[in-house]
Design brief:
Mean pLDDT: 91
Radius of gyration: 24 Å
Structural class: alpha/beta
CATH superfamily of the largest domain: Glycosidases
Helix content: 25-40%
Oligomer: single chain
Number of helices: 9
Shape: globular
Largest sheet: 8 strands, parallel, barrel
CATH topology of the largest domain: TIM Barrel
CATH class of the largest domain: Alpha Beta
Strand content: 15-25%
CATH architecture of the largest domain: Alpha-Beta Barrel
Number of strands: 18
Length: about 375
């Protein structure tokens, strides 16, 4: 063996470090969500055409559900999924199957287990992504703290069960970015989620139109600091929405910035785009939220709210959300049978942001008008 001079060894070590850093950066996942590929029971040629028309990324998170239907449940559906996977693999894409996109699976574990077992045996699939969102359970919004904790505990236990069913295939979960830090729900704490799933896709986006969540690197950094426990205790992917970005160039710039900012943290595993069929530069809306109660603070279900031509009704716990007002301030009109009408002048934050106002208290009686001045909330 020929002896290598010390200076040369130094060069080799430096080169190895550079190559290692480059390999780690290249290993970060760059994925995109794909929905509705199997709508209308398409033939294989049509599936391939639909895929060719999409803006795909190296990894595809492929929904194998169409509404409530589980596509691989039938031989025909299984062949449709196989056709899609073959086409994606020919294009050098990695493929993960996305499923369980309904909170009902929190109560129907046998169906969840059956779907995960079937998805784990699909040829060419490299991982499973579970999209049960526990906070969309009908009992969540109006539930007491113990009810929310019960739902959260059931969700984490479900993930653990499904992970054992999928083994040795990795099973990951899509979670709202705020879940691990939610006050009063320790079941969502990072260590518990990290123990229940092989990876977490943090959904860093709001509904189309707002409120904006992860449109820029600064937005994400403000919500997920580099010291966050998630980035040191879990495998984390940052999911951004196309509709929150003004253009493909802006989205790619944000993705690149996130990779540079978080690339050296222990748990950061890459980025995902939601979703391949959505648009860029969606119109942003002004949003108003709050709750309607009686004089004692009890919720007033089904109260009607109107502002600048936009109307809605409060849910069973009095909560409401008005979206799409065209003006930066307007009068809010609140009515409910048996209560006096309330009128409030409300300044609104810019389009793409949410204004939250203090509780609206209704007094018993026929009609009444009041016009208190309120500040826009955060």
């Amino acid at each position: 063996m020929r002896r290598v001079p010390p200076a040369a060894w130094h060069g080799f070590v430096l080169l190895a470090v550079v190559l290692s850093a480059g390999a780690a950066h290249a290993a970060l996942e760059d994925s995109v969500f794909v929905y509705d590929l199997f709508a209308g029971k398409p033939a294989c040629a049509q599936i391939e055409q639909r895929l060719a028309a999409l803006d795909l990324r190296p990894t595809v998170l492929l929904s194998v559900e169409q509404g409530p239907a589980f596509i691989p449940a039938t031989p025909e559906g299984r062949e449709q999924v196989a056709c899609a996977v073959r086409a994606l693999r020919r294009g050098k894409h990695h493929v993960k199957a996305m499923l369980l996109q309904d909170p009902g699976f929190l109560k129907d574990r046998s169906a969840a287990v059956q779907r995960v077992h079937a998805a784990a045996t699909l040829p060419g699939i490299e991982g499973l992504l579970i999209d049960v969102e526990p906070y969309t359970d009908p009992d969540w919004d109006c539930g007491k703290p113990e009810v929310r904790r019960q739902i959260a505990a059931g969700y984490v236990d479900l993930l653990r069960t499904l992970r054992s069913v999928a083994d040795p295939m990795p099973l990951e979960a899509a979670v709202a970015w705020w879940m691990p830090g939610m006050e009063g729900v320790p079941e969502f704490a990072t260590p518990r989620l990290a123990d229940a799933a092989d990876g977490l896709y943090l959904m860093l986006y709001g509904d189309e139109g707002g409120p904006l969540v992860g449109a820029t690197v600064a937005d994400v950094a403000g919500r997920i600091p580099g010291s966050s426990e998630m980035l040191h205790r879990a495998r984390v992917y940052f999911a951004l929405a196309r509709y929150e970005s003004p253009s493909p160039e802006a989205l790619n710039e944000t993705i690149g910035g996130l990779r540079r900012l978080y690339g050296k943290t222990q748990g950061f595993r890459g980025t995902a785009v939601f979703h391949a069929g959505s648009r860029y530069n969606a119109r942003r809306m002004r949003i108003l939220s709050g709750v309607v109660t009686d004089a004692e603070g009890n919720p007033v279900p089904n109260a009607q709210l109107e502002m600048a031509g936009v109307t809605t009704r409060a849910n069973i716990c009095g909560q409401f959300l008005l979206r799409g007002m065209q003006r930066d301030s307007a009068e809010l009109v609140v009515t409910a049978p048996g209560y006096r009408r309330v009128l409030q002048y409300v300044p609104l934050r810019p389009a793409g942001y949410q204004t939250e106002i203090p509780p609206i208290r209704l007094a018993i009686g026929p009609t009444f008008s009041e016009r208190p001045q309120l500040r826009g909330g955060n």
